[in-house]
Amino acid sequence: MVINTTTASLLRVFIGESDEYQGGPLHEAIVLKAREMGLAGATMLRGPMGYGRSSRLHSSKILRLSADLPLVIELVDDEARIEALVEALQPMLGGALVTLETVRVVRYGHEAGLD
């Protein structure tokens, strides 16, 4: 079987749930900017536990409730669109960890008749 793939860029932005931009949640600002710029899509993942540069543990455990759980926003699109987004996000990102890698897209979209 031959699998047809295409190359794209994967952008990951690691932030905290309490991070803000212009008085609102940073994760919302990032997703809305990606949508405004016409990127294929964005997914925000909320982690139950993590830590960053400070080594301070953020956890959703009941005995140690954190209001600053780790978030990861993933975006996949062609390299030019991702690079344009990274440039547009620069004023928002502060101390965020941002990674970029090349990925192979195996499938995007849906087949006719399948929902």
TrEMBL record:
<dbReference type="Pfam" id="PF02641">
    <property type="entry name" value="DUF190"/>
</dbReference>
<dbReference type="InterPro" id="IPR003793">
    <property type="entry name" value="UPF0166"/>
</dbReference>
<dbReference type="InterPro" id="IPR011322">
    <property type="entry name" value="N-reg_PII-like_a/b"/>
</dbReference>
<comment type="similarity">
    <text>Belongs to the UPF0166 family.</text>
</comment>
<dbReference type="InterPro" id="IPR015867">
    <property type="entry name" value="N-reg_PII/ATP_PRibTrfase_C"/>
</dbReference>
<protein>
    <recommendedName>
        <fullName>DUF190 domain-containing protein</fullName>
    </recommendedName>
</protein>
